[in-house]
Amino acid sequence: MRIFLLGIVFIATTSVLTAQDLPAPQNSAALLRELDQINKTAETHEQQRRSEAISRIQSAAASPSASVELYLQALAGTKYLDKHQDFLDWKQKNQDVIRHSSYQNAAQLQLRYLLLGLLRSEKHDALAQINETLAYLNSLQSLHFLDEPFVAPPTQKGYQPQPCPSDKVTKEAADLMGKSLLGYPIVEWLQIKDLLPDKDFSGAAGDYFEILEKNVKSPLKQKNDPRLTGVWDLQITTAMTHANATKDSQKAVTFKTEKLPNLLFGKCADMAAIGQPNRAVNEMVALIRAYPGNPSVPDWIEAAKHLITNTPVAPTSGTNAPDSTAAATNVLNSPEATAPQTNTPTQSR
């Protein structure tokens, strides 16, 4: 009971003391200088960490084999830390997987995308990286990472499944590319998670369409950049090629009848926003004529009418759209006008 009462007295006394402010520091100038110095030291340390990570990753990204080697070092230093024999057993068991060209390509692509994130800065932002990002996406496509991964048929009596062809992506390589960079062994091993961008940057190196949306289209939209329509064309063409290449005929039909029209309308909406309302109206009317039975047609018609009767003023490049443009764009981008039947345009594959 005595201890309890002492505790109450202590709390009461502390409350009185904390309610009274202390005198202003007499050495405020020196204190400010110290805080500035601490901040500069922290910034220097962060820049040093970034530079060291960039140097190490750039060196490994020079070749697929070196990329895999860095990945294995990181795996040994994270998941298999203090489990060296388990790591050797895993490596021996998966030696054919690791040696396959698609797995090595995946490791190299991961490093290339990781570099894009580490090289971001206020001056070298997502907009400044557009060409680099598009080059990366081109590699992602040319190395077949948009295709369905190769899965060997099940072993049957008297049948030995053939190994994955060198120009096909293995399931293990596809899985590697689908992982988030934040959970990537190299990011954990080098402790660089905090150095990656937190905006206009997709978290997965293998998600072609999300990278196109977040890393490319988003910064272009923010600046009303006229290159935006060309990126829409790239997305539509790539998605169409991907759908036509699928072995699932129903999936291809669904794309042509549902997802493609919504992608085309999304392009029209952004076309109007960047100062091309007349071109947007022409393509919108063509879309309506081509898909008269689409459930979204009433909303498309409303948006087209709004553009015709409220022609927006062309926005200045690098600035926000004027009020009239914003009003038209709000109609074009309203959920009712753009919502597809299955996925949104930015999720269409």
Quick one: biggest sheet? none
Percent helix: 55-70%
Q: What is the count of β-strands? A: 0
Query: Which structural class should the secondary elements be placed in?
Result: mainly alpha
Written account of the structure:
- This protein has 349 residues and is mainly alpha-helical.
- 64% of the residues lie in helices and 0% in strands.
- The protein contains 16 helices and no strands.
- It has helices spanning 2-19, 28-60, 64-77, 84-93, 95-99, 101-118, 130-142, 171-178, 185-190, 208-222, 228-245, 249-273, 277-290, 297-309, 323-332, 335-338.
- The protein is flat and about 70 Å long.
- It starts with a helix and ends in an 11-residue tail after the last helix.
- The model is unreliable at 314-349 (pLDDT under 50).
What's the layout of helices and strands?
Layout: H1 2-19, H2 28-60, H3 64-77, H4 84-93, H5 95-99, H6 101-118, H7 130-142, H8 171-178, H9 185-190, H10 208-222, H11 228-245, H12 249-273, H13 277-290, H14 297-309, H15 323-332, H16 335-338
Helix pairs in contact: 2-6, 3-6, 6-7, 6-8, 7-10, 10-11, 11-12, 12-13, 12-15, 13-14
Features:
disordered C terminus; 349 residues; single chain; mainly alpha
At a glance:
By secondary structure, the protein is mainly α. It contains 16 helices and no strands. Helix content is 64%, strand content 0%.
